[in-house]
Inverse folding.
């Protein structure tokens, strides 16, 4: 498949910046303070949800001032598309978390299908408690489960297609130093 880099560049050129890098860094600091206050004595296993959670996790982990085990998992519904499909596990957790608290770090809580499935997986595999941290919680009424909420949220955003700080547009712009909304989406 050939990628139209001109289109990818045009998407960025026309995108609306919803949050700057400074706003995101301040939000990550607030999330870290909340996690430090609540999980420091719980000996959590921390999982980064790949690939979207990589930037948030990388920025957040050094701000957590307690011992923890860290790993990753990779479950996706998007596969470089702009709309989600069936959940696909690319890599399940390899660290045991039986009778342990688990902290899942992800980029976004959109409809919550992926995050909900990960929470269910951890609970069924014996986690004592499952906590979730997301950089962005998208505001809309299409959540997979009306009760699904992240325990720690960096920022909320309007219901548009966003990218940057780990989130992609067709596999690109995860490296954008801000959160951007695609024009017209």
């Amino acid at each position: 498949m050939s990628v139209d880099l001109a289109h990818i560049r045009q998407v960025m050129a026309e995108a609306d910046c919803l949050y700057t890098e400074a706003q995101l860094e301040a939000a990550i600091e607030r999330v870290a303070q909340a996690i430090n206050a609540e999980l420091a004595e719980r000996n959590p296993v921390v999982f980064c949800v790949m690939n979207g959670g990589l930037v948030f996790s990388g920025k957040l982990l050094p701000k957590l001032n307690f011992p923890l085990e860290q790993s990753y998992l990779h479950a996706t519904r998007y596969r470089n598309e702009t709309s989600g499909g069936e959940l696909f596990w690319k890599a399940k957790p390899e660290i045991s978390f039986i009778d342990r608290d688990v902290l899942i770090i992800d980029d976004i809580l959109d409809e919550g299908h992926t995050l909900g499935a990960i929470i269910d997986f951890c609970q069924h595999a014996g986690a004592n408690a499952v906590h979730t941290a997301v950089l962005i919680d998208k505001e809309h009424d299409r959540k997979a489960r009306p009760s699904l909420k992240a325990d720690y949220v960096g920022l909320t955003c309007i219901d548009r297609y966003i990218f940057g700080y780990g989130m992609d547009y067709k596999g690109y712009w995860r490296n954008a130093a801000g959160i951007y909304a695609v024009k017209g989406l």
Observations:
- Helices lie at 5-14, 21-39, 54-60, 113-124.
- Residues 45 and 147 are 24 Å apart (CA to CA).
